Amino acid sequence: MWNLLFLLFLACITPFSFADSPAPTKPKLTVCTDTWTPFTDKTLPGSGQSWRIIQEVMSSQGYDTELTIMPWARAVRSVKDGECDALADAFYTKDRTQWARFSAPYGEVNTVFFKRTDREIPSLLMQDLKDYRIGIIRGAAASPAFDSDTSLNKHQVRDIKQGLTMLYADRLDLLVAEDIPALYQIQQLSLQYPNIDNEIQAIEPFLANNERHLAISKQSENGLTILRDFNRGLIQLIKSGKYKKLLDEY
Description:
Elements: H1 2-19, E1 28-33, H2 49-60, E2 64-69, H3 72-80, E3 86-90, E4 100-102, E5 107-116, E6 133-137, H4 144-148, E7 153-157, H5 160-168, E8 174-178, H6 179-189, H7 196-199, E9 200-217, H8 223-240, H9 242-249
Helix pairs in contact: 2-8, 5-6
């Protein structure tokens, strides 16, 4: 009898006790990267294609997400030091595996050489490029062969915009950049330099085809869980058909 009364008492007070308890806090994923139109750009709807994919994937796994835009080299350093959980749109390199775990790829992009249209570049073989001033984005990767070649005359630039401006001003002979973001940037620069789209061009064949990953800091306390949840959520997004729709929007 007393046991029954006690259970009835618990049944009466439990709803009120739990009603006053705070809701469980969602895990938060902080992501750093540079503006890289159309993949990450806070001026675009949803802040760009890559960010839409990352948000959709992590939201499906119960995460809140926060995007911080900063220069690429600083974003790399922030993830390496554990100040940010993950780096968006990272290319896989052996060196980066020392401080990051790489998700399954959620996209790809071609890395190419850009040149002035009035400049002849007869050969893109590494041994034939030693006399050229080649612009590279600080902290970025292109291809293992190019990145490891110390005989090339490489000049670091802050971002694609600075590199294209220097190429246009004939302060560089070549610029290594990704084709789609660079073409978007050329369109923007044409407001300032009306002829730039006629004076700069990509050279075929491309230097490398690179997959885009979320690089998760090994300093992140929940890094392995984030990696597992992202990969699982990405598979779900692809199977649902929403992944393809997001690609088609940009």
